[in-house]
Amino acid sequence: MKNIRNFCIIAHIDHGKSTLADRIIQKTLGVPDREFRDQMLDTMDLERERGITIKSQTVCLPYKNKNGEEMVFNLIDTPGHVDFSYEVSRSLASCEGALLLVDASQGVEAQTVANLYMAMEHNLTIIPVINKIDLPAADIDMCNEQIEEELGLDPLDALHASAKAGLGIDEVLAAVADRIPAPTGDRDKPLQALIFDSLYDSYRGVIIYVRVFEGTVKVGDRIRLMSTGAVYKIEELGVMQLKQVPRKSLSAGEVGYIITGMKTISEARVGDTITTEENGCDAPLAGFKDVKPVVFSSIYPLSTDDFPELADSMERLKLNDASLVYTRDSSTILGQGFRCGFLGLLHLEITEERLEREYDQSIILTAPSVEYKVYLKSGEVLEIDNPIYYPDPSCIDRAEEPYIRASFIIPKDYVGPVINLCISRRGIQSNMHYLDSRRIELVFELPLSEILFDFYDRLKTISKGYASFDYEFLEYRQTKLVKLTILVNHEQVDALSVLVHEDRAVERARIICKKLSETIARHQFKIPIQGAIGGKIIARETVNPVRKDVLAKCYGGDITRKRKLLEKQKAGKKRMMQIGEVEIPQKAFLAVLKNDDEDN
Q: Domain check: are 555 and 418 in the same one?
């Protein structure tokens, strides 16, 4: 056990985690050039297309230290985006140390600090690594200063590397061997293994990824899942070396996979403890903190007949993405579906794409919202994340919405535009201080609902991509809340209803109506699209009808002949409008997710 090292790589998004993991894998496993590809641990097409890590991946690497001893490195690559911080927390629970990457040209950023604090909560040994030292814009002195002042780490301990050029990789591996402590545990004690990830294989059932803390588990053992009490016999276990490598046993300190032929997906809960059926441990390991979704949206199948398939796909996706929270939901127009909770808008977007691409589901998403607290005059308190359940305004005493503390690290040239953006989203500035001569940290208190629509995109646009952004939940505060309903051809569409602040209602209604008028196809009759609060219409757009030229056959004669034909057409259009149904395409539902028309 003294020759095992369990570590992960943490950093802000795009600071080179996956590239460093690639170099480490090449160096230790000796992957031939013809088999090598960039982002080796990023297995999804989505990850490769976007250049981001979504899922944590583990790999077992052989290493020979300076004394010639054989060692085993268990490396877990982690995401950098704030929406996938739950993946990071699960990886940290399985490690004793972490490589903290800092981009030599950009320095310490918001998510760097957030991930460092998360690692400190787990008492991990931190090794700072200044990456991308080969860039022309690299400023190592600036990074050393920030590592000392902002992270509170010793800059003399920082390693210098370039993952892309392959510089400093040997030093990084040597530091992992020397500085990160070996795992603790007793191989003779009753089995205690923590499930930190799982996935579903259509041929082999559920594959569980575990970190063994105490005891030993072997092929043929009967194991018990402590949260459910379910018992399974182990068919295969082993370690991951880019592919599954079977072993006879896994012991304390090791990381690997277990296959039991389990078909019940919901039983393999992330954070659960595995022990043996006989002579098992008494208490489960401390699991992970419960995930707290901040963005809510409903997912419906395009065809109501596809609901059973969608339910099966959601269950499989939940196994692979433990931060996804969902419950059954229904709509009068869209039928049966699911009300889902996400950690952010990117998480929502990735979930939608995974359902469509990996599980072949055609789905409709409703506009995202946050969870509001509504206090009724009767004294009852309702927690509402779906506009459908918003009570009659006459029964409401007051409403509260969630606020976040958002911290921005930005170059001083872009301070003005970022402050204007935050103020336009009802933000309150609480702090501002200079980190050094070039960068400023801004802290704003913002309503969570105001960052749902394109906030991140606009922040990157106005700062030319230099601003970094991190946030944490603060508290609930009183607000003026109204329910904005959308009427298409005088019929209310539940899926397009949103809860908004009173001051933003007219602007939001105009944007939604304009988007819908551009995406709904023209019909044989005029289609009014209206935004309303209660019975008051506050915005309107019209989709003009497709018209037949009824005067084409009328060559001459009195004007009354033409008027008669036009009146007849008008009456037909009116009748059609009363009985006609408007087809709303899927892209119309997605149109309300974006706020492209906003200029402030």
A: no
